[in-house]
Amino acid sequence: MFSLQVSNSIKFRFSSIQGTRILNHFNPSVFYSSVAKTQENINFQNNQLIRSKPKLSVTKYNKPFSNRKQALFAKYEDAFATSPGVLLVQFINISADEWTSLRQTLRLECHGADAMVLHGGIATAVVRHTKLSKMRYLFKGPVFAVYWNNDAKSDQYTNPQGIAPGEFQLKKHVTDAIKVISKNSNLFLLGGCLEDSLLTPSMVKEYTKLPDISTLQSQIVGILQTPSRKLVSTLDATPSRLVSLLKQIQ
After folding, report:
1. Same domain membership, residue 104 and residue 187
2. SS3 for 233?
């Protein structure tokens, strides 16, 4: 037998005659250049999470990460960095049909929300040394993330049925997603990141009950105007009281 080692992870085995024929026509530079181009294309294209330390480029054994891990890393980072909200959900005994149905329901009822199962180790590496680093404690066991990509946030978004649901409203869509999750007894909300804030399950539910920005603004304006209104009414009442007091003295 004849062995040909072309990289750290790729090795071919041939008979001695086959190996001799292949070596006569083998050009290592062509193979290595194609591998380099492939890794360059799959390499992290969405470095959007701000890190306090640079991310690792090799494993602890000083070997490059596989293309699959690099692709998952880039996908997770893009979702965490660009989505206005991410919900983390633990699942138990979900069949393939149930998973497909769940994703379809999220897209239809939650303004194009999508779900992806997370590889705990890779997801932990994505959030390490970022503002989302505490999310790593939730990447235990079977967990998936509910998120909204750039297409779902677009004003021109249409759902799979061809219907334009209108303006993207995170609080409303998170509320709808929680309703979908709560209908399945095998799904458990672990928490999430909404508007750059890490929230527990109870905090996520409280978030959905908050009034919208316009309502809050009107409430704040009303609170600020209350003292001035009282002052104006007091000043208006003072002259009339003074006049009545002078009349009583006379």
Report:
1. yes
2. helix
